């Protein structure tokens, strides 16, 4: 290789290295960092709910959005109607693979800090998390009635939180927020996604898992009931009969 060729090669190498360093610096400048106060929610017999805190930082101005989503599950909804003067279940609808828990925290109203395209692409908001029914199941106003009923039930239980939680800045870059988990929170692996937004678009994101698990005797009973359903039912009936018999003896002695 000639001297000119070697010089040209060295120059190209230096420019390439400088280019990648600039890109790396830009990525670091846009990075958002976040983590949870705990990655495990342990459910015991006396569990009455929990609070999970998230702390993070951004290196450039913008909005912050945090989404906590529980494991997907199926929900069966029932509708009661009066038949011959008696209220009975007359219709049912099953929503398949929808979040068992859903909550949002943000630095502003969702419609103001994100574009509709961003929300749709990233499954953000109640209109984008898979609650819509297929036309073959229900359409139009009927589908909306079933969907609204599902959301009302899950909001009443505390597992869907329609109002966005507040994100508080602890300075120019540091922020924190908090999610409240109800006593009946579903078990499984949750995902907490943190988005850094600018002009309605996502410039960076982080996702971290959260495990909600039963532990101790409750976990063993729960696992046994699911793995040996028939035997668990027999044992439950036997315990109920013994309890009734003991109660009967106590009543006779009284």
Plain-language structure description:
The strands form three sheets. The chain has a six-stranded mixed β-sheet. A four-stranded antiparallel β-sheet has the order 1-3-10-9. Strands 5-6 form a two-stranded antiparallel sheet. With 254 residues, the protein is an alpha+beta fold. The protein has helices spanning 3-30, 110-113, 116-121, 140-157, 217-227, 229-253; strands at residues 32-36, 40-43, 50-58, 63-69, 72-83, 86-99, 102-106, 160-166, 168-169, 174-181, 188-198, 201-214. It folds into two domains: 23-214, Immunoglobulin-like (Sandwich); 216-254. 36% of the residues lie in helices and 39% in strands.
Q: Just give the CATH class of the largest domain.
A: Mainly Beta
Number of domains: 2
Could you tell me the number of beta strands? 12
What's the rounded overall pLDDT mean? 79
Q: Kindly provide the radius of gyration, computed on alpha-carbon positions and rounded to a whole number of angstroms.
A: 27 Å
Looking at CATH, the homologous superfamily of the largest domain is Macroglobulin (MG2) domain
Distance between the termini: 108 Å
Largest sheet: 6 strands, mixed
Secondary-structure-derived class: alpha+beta
Q: Residue ranges: pLDDT <50 for 5 or more in a row?
A: 8-28, 219-229
């Amino acid at each position: 290789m000639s001297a000119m060729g070697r010089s040209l090669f060295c120059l190209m190498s230096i420019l390439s290295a400088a280019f990648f360093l600039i890109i790396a610096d830009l990525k670091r400048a846009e990075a958002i960092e976040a983590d949870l106060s705990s990655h495990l929610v342990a459910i015991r017999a006396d569990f009455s709910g929990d609070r999970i805190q998230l702390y993070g930082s951004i290196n450039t101005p913008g909005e912050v959005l945090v989404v906590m989503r529980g494991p997907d599950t199926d929900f069966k909804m029932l509708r009661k109607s009066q038949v011959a003067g008696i209220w009975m279940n007359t219709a049912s609808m099953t929503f398949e693979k929808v979040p068992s828990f859903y909550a949002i925290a943000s630095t502003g109203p969702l419609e103001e800090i994100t574009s509709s395209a961003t929300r749709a692409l990233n499954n953000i908001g109640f209109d984008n998390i898979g609650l819509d029914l297929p036309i073959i199941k229900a359409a139009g106003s009927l589908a909306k009635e079933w969907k609204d009923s599902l959301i009302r039930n899950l909001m009443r239980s505390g597992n869907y939180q329609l109002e966005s939680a507040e994100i508080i800045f602890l300075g120019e870059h540091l922020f924190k927020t908090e999610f409240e988990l109800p006593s009946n929170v579903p078990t499984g692996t949750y995902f907490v996604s943190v988005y850094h937004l600018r002009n309605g678009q996502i410039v960076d994101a982080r996702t971290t898992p959260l495990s909600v698990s039963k532990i101790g005797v409750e976990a063993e009973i729960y696992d046994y009931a699911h793995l040996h359903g028939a035997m668990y039912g027999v044992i439950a009936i036997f315990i109920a009969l013994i309890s009734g018999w003991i109660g009967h003896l106590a009543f006779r002695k009284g």
